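Quick question, first post here. What does this chain look like in 3D?
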Amino acid sequence: MEAQVKAKFLRTSPLKLRRVLNQIKGRNVEEALNYLHFSPKRSADFIEKALRSAVANFYEAYEGKKLSTRELYIKHVSVDGGPILRRFRPMSMGRVGRVRRRTSHLSIIIEDKEK
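> Answer (accepted):
Ran it through. Tokens below.
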């Protein structure tokens, strides 16, 4: 049994999210939440919020199952690029410089360990 969550239009670049996601990939949910809660990276907050939502989705879908977060593990995580917000700033010699503010789409799938 599995549950998934998709967080869209996160205001951080996919590269920054992938740095943190590579640390929690394949871990059980409790270890991942501990890592994310104490991580100094800003993108860890986005991932922690999405992971907690995935756990809530799992418990909502499978109400009869009595599982702790130790028995759930992260099956799949992926990050895709979202739309890029383009902003402009003045530069030297009267030119204009483009600032690209990247967004991300995060997808997490959790599953219980089969016995």
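The longest strand covers residues 72-81.
The mean pLDDT is 93.
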